[in-house]
Design brief:
heterodimer; A: alpha/beta; five-stranded parallel sheet; 35% helix; B: 338 residues; Rossmann fold; 2 domains
Chain lengths: 330, 338
Amino acid sequence: MSRAPISLADRLRALADLRPADDKTTAAVLAMLTPRDGHAEVRAAARRAALPTHAAPSRAPTLPPPTPAAPAPPPAVRPVTQPPLAPASTRLHPVARRTWAALAAPPAAAVRTFAGHGASPVRVPPPLLPAAQQRAVLSTLAAVPAPGTTIDIDALVAALAGGRLVARLPRHRRWSLHRGAQLLLDCSPALLPLAHDVQALCARLGRVVGEGRLEPLSFAGCPTRGAGAGERGSWPAWRPPPAGVPVLVVSDLGCAGPRVNADWAGADEWSRFADVACAAAVPLVALVPYPVRRVPAALARRLAVVPWDEDLSAARVRRILRDARIVVPR
Amino acid sequence: MLNYRKTHFDPARLRGFTRIDREGREDWSFDLGAKVDPRHFAVAEEAVLALNVALATKRPLLVSGEPGNGKTTLARVAALALGRVFYRQTVTSRLQASDLLASFDALRRLSDAQGGGAKTPQAYVVPGPLWWALAPVTAAQRGLSPVPELAPLIDPGVRRRLAAKAAVLLLDEIDKADPDVPNDLLEALDESRFTVPETGQRIEPESGRGRDGVLIVLTTNGERELPPAFLRRCVTLELPPPSEAWLVDIAQRRFGADSEHFGLPLYRQVALEMMDLRQRAADQGRRPPGTSEYVDAVLACRELLHESTLRAGDDVELLRILETVLAKGTAAAPLAGG
């Protein structure tokens, strides 16, 4: 049986052994025996991470644009009451639920101003991906199969027993993050209700894969129109990463439709993008906040579509990736 | 100032390691995988406390902080001060948990089998650093009992005293490993025992080793997040970023303060430039230069500059050197005055 995590007994043992003489030393000892709050770090990183500025879309989006900053309200703040606009049903897909929540919530500027006066914390909806699942899900999403160090004895024996010439030693494969990842974030209006989640996902993925190994790029509609890290107007044409580096796309893949999404891209455009990725031998995974059945079948066959909802787990991601044809570089 | 009983680790004990050479001079140098001179290393009081807490609770110590901030050297100095055997493994992205415990050379066994000279499976076991740290006798014989035809392996541990029993194991840059690796190590780190799958042998800690006798120090540059289950089992220490006074203190320890121009004024000027560069690097979102780069910069200035140049107050050459050693592409604009 494995030894338990650091507990009260450990803290007592340390204090009895070292006998700190003052409160400052006692606090320092206890701080070293308190596990760091990874989620707090991620929340802080998410606050720091900012998505690129949204340029004005060619057509007016259906969703309400962010309200400009209002003058500071008086310090005495009335309690924020939430009108019963948000439907109670949890069967709605995430975008619809977030849209309802955004409509029901008080204007963002007012909430920010309230928080600035210390009267009320910023109202951020609970994360779409449960905090406890985030790390496991993201590390599974960005992992690619890599040859391990151990030789696959069973495969080797089978080859020799079958009289086949063994030109390459078979090795057990393992899932690895060593290749890093390219993260393509759709900043079209269709993803606006999930802006908090997208920022948090970007920050968390950076910590899971490694900041230096993650290349986050933004695009609007479809990456074939251009993708980059800076302002929208400066995005160059999308280039696939080196072979074997997984590409993770966060987008609705056009599911929201042209009425909701001013930057809408159709299945044909997305299919062309998937073909370019396939030709470049990069594994392509799409995180889509809609049910998979909404994604056109022709497109769903070209890439691994992972539905982004509260039920997403590492095991489910693994099943989807296994069923999809992930390109494995030799 | 932290006030407590330094029951297990006290940097003052480092003084006891001074040797007198044949000519009657003090000899401080000590090779511990790399050259370590305890006089050059300033141990932050948080680090001393963390080592004491880790030793008191018998938990692994996870040290985080900026690269080049003395995390690795801290483990070396701990081994030196505690008089323990020192083992080190630098973690890479391809490293797996089995590499730290025991691996099996199946290819050599296959080759031997084809030539009709296959030996017992124990002959193909390669002990990892954790095995060496926990049980050096069984590691040397690759298993629980010696095999007559196998020559014992040489212990890779570095020690100052032959009689040293306990050990310090450094797993450097654990954040480079895939996320599963720290989780796969949980049992071995917690229980100080593991099984070699190819031989089925259960490796137990030897006398003087185990949780009491092996201090495991892990370092991370924070490149990747570590699993929560792993973090919950470690004593954590975050080394603070270097301050100007801290840097000057290190330079004084390392190079002395004897020279009028190559002494304190130089250390202060280099420290000042470095703090400025660190701020600019932070503004640009780049990695700031660390303590090791500061030491390199001071060394380069002492080696390459003429004292007359500094006396005349000519900073051009000095800044050029600092640009090369410290900036490394960090600064878009030249250093102040350059």
